[in-house]
Amino acid sequence: MSDSLALTLAGETVWLHGDRALFYPGDSALLVADTHFGKGAFLRRRGLAVPGGESRADLDRLSILIEHFQPARLIVLGDFFHHRPSRGEPFLDAWPAWRARHALLTPEVVIGNHDRHAEGLDLDMIWHSHLDLGPFRLVHDPYPVSGRHVLGGHLHPAYRLHGGADSVRAPVFWLREGVTVLPAFGGLTGGWPIRPARGEKVVMALDGDLYPLP
């Protein structure tokens, strides 16, 4: 049990972190997937009793990861937004101060399906359809790509570990042939239960710690 785990992917060392992030030292890049900023406000507008503060909490989690790894780049693997944010939403109020706190680090986003609702917003970010770093292809929807190891999100992978009368379900990093799927970073994102095939591995991220599973 640890909050960090070194892996070799496509001949390169990467670090998984228990707060659902991946750090690639070769390009000093911190990667997270599926932040879904503004989801709480979206749900509250539809009458659901969702507590506030989730976007600020997720930004604080990002700040802690940035302070820990000191990356040159922050890259979100799609679905940075959950919807097109409206004026006065908590995320838009919190964002300028967060950007000022990390002024030397410009966020980059690989466009996800939810991000298309935010076309035209200018929040001082760089947008990519996909991105190549070293041997890696960074995407939102994690399909295999010839000659590249794919790092993606979109699926929100989760796994249930059974242990006698008890069981635990948590987000996981899903390590497949030529593809690594990151767990969803956003605090209000759900999880999609996976069944790893033979030869695939999962690393569970539970309460900030990592648990590699056989």
From TrEMBL:
What phylogenetic lineage does the species belong to?
A: Bacteria, Pseudomonadati, Pseudomonadota, Gammaproteobacteria, Oceanospirillales
Q: Which organism is it from?
A: Alloalcanivorax venustensis ISO4
InterPro entries per the record?
Answer: Metallo-depent_PP-like (IPR029052), PdeM-like (IPR026336), Pesterase_MJ0037-like (IPR024173)
User: What's the protein name?
Assistant: Calcineurin-like phosphoesterase domain-containing protein
Task: Say which domain of life the source belongs to.
Answer: Bacteria
PANTHER family attached to this UniProt entry: BLR1149 PROTEIN
